[in-house]
Design brief:
Elements lengths: L1 H17 L18 E10 L2 E6 L5 E5 L3 E6 L2 E5 L14 E6 L3 H4 L2 E8 L6 E11 L2 E15 L9 E3 L5 E5 L26 E5 L21 E4 L4 E6 L6 E5 L6 E5 L36 E3 L5 E6 L12 E5 L4 E8 L2 E8 L5 E6 L5 E5 L3 E8 L1
Antiparallel strand pairs: 1-24, 2-3, 3-4, 4-5, 6-7, 7-8, 8-9, 10-11, 11-12, 12-13, 14-15, 15-16, 16-17, 18-19, 19-20, 20-21, 22-23, 23-24
Pfam families: GSDH
Protein name: PQQ-dependent sugar dehydrogenase
Keywords: Signal
Length: about 375
């Protein structure tokens, strides 16, 4: 009996070492005391505002999940026409992310991802398009990428669009498929199948081509757009302005939401391993780690529902400069993570009681936060 208890204690100790610390319960005082935050409502009365980004002149481009897109210039909001006609907003679909090209001043391109209806099936796919704006109309619309129309339950699309420092475009896509269930017997292993687009982070040129230095994944003979795989529902994507690394956040099942630093060709484990459990209480994996699978740098249990990421680079936020902001859909707050290099040392909660869909740092250095129920955009500054 004594040996059994000793073995159990050792096993629990090993499990504890694999998990990230819970900074909320850390008794030490925060290194960045909370300044007074000023909140201003810029927009309200909309449906879910999923994607938003800024033009070089400070205008805000934002979209509603139901399939509408707008431009806010000063205090004037104008709806733009010309969106694709195949947007499917059922379930978790609709008009998703919006991203302005980093060299917009020279080329005028804006990118958007959306869930799309497909002819001859009730399934949906995920499309990436780019366009220009001419007199409040979308023009020169081009489809750059399509994920196959195999999403049966119209959930877990991802998706976020981001550019790295070399100008390559990254697109995150959720697992799609017939269902979402973790474990070795999961009926949906899209995320582990490198032959499908779902459950991946894709890397491509700004015109949608495959970069020659993309990884050649097991079973393939040439590079594809797939940069990393094993992702469940990645709704956060941001380039680290200091290191140039691509950071990603994703929803797990019940507990175990992840913050990852993406590596070329790496497997992030879903649905084979997770720090969470299935919604019905069943175990996903005996251990949250596995040989050949990248471990997250941080996890949330219970699930925060991470959606949208933003590094604070503005001097106006004083001691918060260098922190990472994470939107929270499930626990209803904006998470501010203090970092020591690539390690999260503490989490702080802002805007508690609000369902946060997206967060962006604006050209003026303030923080824009997309909040639901109703859809609105808040501007955060420090007093």
């Amino acid at each position: 009996m004594k040996n059994t208890l000793l073995l159990l204690t050792c096993c629990l100790g090993v499990w504890a070492c694999t998990r990230t610390a819970d900074p909320i319960s850390d008794p030490t005082p925060p290194t960045n005391p909370t300044p007074a935050v000023q909140t201003k409502t810029l927009l309200t009365g909309y449906e879910i505002i999923w994607g938003m980004d800024f033009l070089p002149n400070g205008d805000l481009i934002f979209g509603e999940k139901r399939g509408r897109i707008y431009r806010r210039s000063g205090e004037v909001v104008t709806e733009l026409t010309g969106l694709p006609t195949d947007i499917n907003s059922s379930g978790q679909g609709g008009l998703l992310d919006i991203r302005v090209h980093p060299n917009y001043a020279a080329n005028g391109w804006i990118y958007a991802s959306y869930a799309a209806s497909a002819a001859g099936t009730t399934n949906t796919q995920l499309n990436l398009v780019r366009f220009k704006i001419t007199e409040n109309r979308l023009t020169e619309l081009q489809t750059l990428f399509r994920a196959a129309p195999t999403n049966q339950w119209k959930g877990h699309y991802g998706s976020r669009i981001e550019f790295d420092k070399s100008g390559f475009l990254y697109l995150s896509i959720g697992e799609g498929g017939p269902s979402s269930y973790g474990g070795a017997t999961s009926p949906n292993k899209n995320a582990q199948n490198v032959q499908t687009e779902w459950g991946k982070v894709h890397r491509m040129t700004d015109a949608g081509a495959v970069p020659t230095d993309n990884p050649i994944l097991p079973g393939n003979t040439a590079p594809t757009t797939v940069f990393s795989y094993g992702h469940r529902n990645p709704q956060g994507l941001i380039v680290n302005p200091t290191t140039g690394d691509m950071w990603e956040s994703e929803h797990s099942a019940k507990g175990g939401d992840e913050l990852n630093i993406l590596k070329k060709g790496a497997n992030y484990g879903w649905p084979l391993v997770s720090y969470g459990i299935n919604y019905d209480g069943t175990t996903i994996s005996a251990s949250p780690t596995m040989a050949g699978v990248e471990n997250p740098i941080y996890t949330w249990t219970p699930s925060v529902g991470p959606c949208g990421l933003a590094f604070i680079t503005s001097d106006a936020f004083k001691t918060w400069k260098g922190n990472l902001l994470v939107g929270g859909l499930a626990l209803n707050y904006l998470s501010r993570l203090e970092l020591d290099g690539n390690k999260v040392v503490r989490e702080n909660k802002l805007l508690e009681g609000n369902r946060i869909r997206n967060v962006k740092q604006a050209p003026d250095g303030s923080i824009y936060v997309s909040v639901e129920n109703p859809g609105r955009v808040l501007q955060l500054t420090l007093q």
